[in-house]
């Protein structure tokens, strides 16, 4: 029985690896959004000036000709030349001069890129090394997540295999770290809830480390920490040597600790009051009616686009899957969420747990949507997000019609929570379920790869 479980996880991660390798090469260099920006961030994290420019100058591909121009295709001769052209930079000037904590955001890609530089391969392959290392990290963390996840494994697997997730996983974008770490945190919390008999200091430290990495990469996703409220208090026994934190202590101290946490939260908000995210939340709270209007206007304006770019809108968001296909995929995902196996009988979420999971999902949706308000305000008022001009948030909220700049992939780290909260009520045969889902994945990726070949490679 254990072997069957492991083989299922291995099969899913093998499928992720194969699809990711194909995606890494089928989406051409510079046609994944913000590659230059992420190269610059990598260079900054290892203390190398001009890192991004030196790699860019060594890969002579016409980014602007293809970007946002669906009628333009890859120049095959140019592509072949870039694969063998020697880099223009000197190896020694590209190696790390200092390591900053920000390297965490792109660690797998950074290791791959540095390896490529050390080997002296063409800059094109340096980028590919970065993408492949990112993919390997994604594959491994997804495997761990599936091993840990006691419920809705198929839901998690389907989301891990979303073409949009695979594109990001096989890129140098920090999504390749953020996405799997969010999956791992969710899986670990449900593992603690259902399978771990006692939660001690080791489990606490692991959960905190994963949460800290997620929050450091992108602060709003730290709200995933709310999921700890589904963990039964009776399981907690954290031995700090001075004191043992268990159910009795938590119940005795919950009021003073709650007050201390509230005071600490208010203090942190005050200290970081100039932070972009805090400013936006402050504006939405003070102008809550306008905030509700903007959130609803954003939803009604961008629903189709957000759904499509959650499943698959490739390149510079200029290669979308058909919306009808996207709808079918979400319907299948919702149906899979209803299915239960014999094992699911042991692991049931009660009403309180479902409320916590759904509230976490809803609050994350709101916070991630709100976080793009700054982008929208600066673009509309000043023409660019990079503008140094300032604004008063409460006034600015009345000067934008909705929140723009959103992409469905921003919701991928936590969209699983919506489907996890759906009760299982349909009993099915495990073997048939796996065969059907496997066939659907193959059909979906045949369509996706056909879409990419037609978009980038066939003149």
Entry keywords:
459 residues; two-stranded antiparallel ribbon; 21 helices; globular
Describe the structure.
This protein is mainly alpha-helical. 64% of the residues lie in helices and 3% in strands. The chain is built from 21 helices and 6 strands. A two-stranded antiparallel ribbon has the order 1-2. It has a two-stranded antiparallel ribbon with strand order 3-4. It has a two-stranded parallel ribbon with strand order 5-6. Helix 8 runs parallel beside helix 11. The chain is globular and about 70 Å long. 37% of the residues are buried. The mean pLDDT is 90.
Describe the protein's topology.
Layout: H1 2-26, H2 35-45, H3 51-57, H4 63-66, H5 76-84, H6 91-94, H7 107-119, H8 123-148, H9 153-160, H10 163-169, H11 175-194, H12 201-217, E1 237-239, E2 244-246, H13 247-271, H14 276-286, H15 288-311, E3 313-314, E4 319-320, H16 323-338, E5 339-340, H17 351-371, H18 373-382, H19 393-396, H20 416-420, E6 426-427, H21 430-457
Parallel strand pairs: 5-6
Antiparallel strand pairs: 1-2, 3-4
Helix pairs in contact: 1-8, 1-10, 1-21, 2-3, 7-8, 8-11, 11-12, 14-15, 15-16
